[in-house]
Structure formats: structure tokens, C-alpha cells
Amino acid sequence: xxxxxTLSIVCFLTLGxxxxxxxxxxxxxxxxxxxxKLAENVKGSEVxxxxxxxxxxxxxxxxxxxxxAHGAVILLHAMGGHADWPQTISPLRTRLPEHGWTTLSIQMxxxxxxxxxxxxxxxxQQAEARIKAAVRSLRERKFLNIVVIGHSFGAATxxxxxAKEEKQxxxxxxxxxxxxxxxxxxxxxxxxxxxxxxxxxxxxxxxRDFRNVINQxxxxxxxxxxxxxxxxxxxxxxxxxHYYNRMxxxxxxxxxxxxxxxxxxxxxxxxxxxxxxxxxxxxxxxxP
Length: 288
Hints:
Layout: H1 2-24, H2 28-41, E1 46-52, E2 55-62, E3 71-76, H3 89-95, E4 101-106, H4 124-140, E5 146-151, H5 153-164, E6 172-176, H6 190-196, E7 201-208, H7 211-215, H8 217-226, E8 232-241, H9 248-262, E9 266-267, E10 270-272, E11 278-280, E12 284-285
Parallel strand pairs: 3-4, 3-5, 5-6, 6-7, 7-8
Antiparallel strand pairs: 1-2, 2-4, 9-12, 10-11
Helix pairs in contact: 4-5, 5-6, 6-8
């Protein structure tokens, strides 16, 4: 009996250590330093702090400035980035509002530099909780026409989130530079997630993108076809690299054109129950 008890204690301590390693892989100190600097220096946006599973994280809210309001876009940056990353994210965050789209760019979990990049798989659960919190925040602000634009790993994270949502509160996804991540543990089945997708998806990549992004494009199209998602579209932007450097205007134009068809603006009428849950009473499409 003493040996069994000792073995149980050893197993418990080993498991606890393993769980702490996973938890510590998320570098909250680095994230705190980065987001505090962003909160101090970002201009033209409202800095808000959202809660995901008891942890606060930063989001940058930028209201649309066009006379016609189309809805809201949640922006998700790539691995190791932040909510105002100068490539891809910041241009979309600041330019889409000029065309009637309010943006909410959220800080995604990042891993500690001393850990392996494969540990990003352990951030998925917290990342999905943050997306959920972002959606809830927008719905509390009376937005129902909610789109997600994810760059690179941010796009993969969104697909994982959508696969778990029984009642879709995101009406469309724009995936930028989407690819498989064979090094991430636990593994993310990108093609399987695309096959399960039921909402409109725009898969954008550049002609000078990462080799894997380009080479896997036919497989992504096939996965959508297998899943019978007729609302899936794929677009290659000639001359664009993975970060759309100097191609921001083209990127914004292509996204806007697709959203006008896949997620047209809506006039919103909502009721709010005592728990703060928003339910759609009457969504009436309006002219884009």
C-alpha cells in the first residue's frame, strides 16, 4: 500500500509539473509589457481590456468613419505579433473603418522565447476564449454582422474556434496566408477544419507568399469542395508576400469587394436578456 501511495504522489507531481510547463509556455510578462506600451502609444482607437477565462487581454477598438456602417471586423495577428502589428494588421485596423467597417484587433497569446515554437499548440484554448470574448464584446455594442480576419496562425486559430461553435456568431472569415503547421503540438488539422467550415471563407495568399501557403492552396480548395462549402473562395494577389508589404491598398480593396457580397451591412435590432446575452430579433439586410 505504501508503494502504491508513493507512486500516486509521484504521478500527481509529475502531472502537475507537466501542466505548469504548458501554462508557462504562454509568456504573459512579455505580453503585458507589449500591450502596456501599445495602450500608451496607440492613437485613433479606443483601448479596451476584455476578459477570457479570468485573464485580461488588450483589444483596440476603432469605429467606422464612413457614413454607411457595414459591421465589425475582429483582427487576429500571426505568431509572436501584437494587436497593432505594423505589417498586415495595422493597415487593416486603420483603413477598414474608412470603408464602413469597425475593427477590433485583439492581442493573441504568445509563447515565451525560451520555449519551442511547437508550443503554440498549447495556446489554442486561450486564443479561442479570447475570440469568444471579442465576439461577445461586439454583440454587447449591438454589432451582429461580425467578420474575422486572421493572418497566418491567427487564421488557423479562427478555424479551430469556429469548428467548436454550434451557433455561429461570426458570419464570415477572411484567412490571410493560411497554411498547415506540422510542427505545432497538439496538431491542427487545417484541411479538416476547412472541410467542416459552413460560413463564407475567403482564402487569400500572395504570389510571393511562403512556399507552403502556395503549395497547399489546391488542397485547401479541395477540402472546401469536400465539405460542400459553396461559399468558399480563394484569391491570389499577384506580387504580394506573406505580409502584403506595399500591397496594403490592394488587400483592403479585395477584402472589401468580397465582404460586400459575403457579409453585406445589416440594420440591427436586438434584445438583451438579464444575463447580457444578445439575441437577434430581426436582421434586415441593407444596401452595402
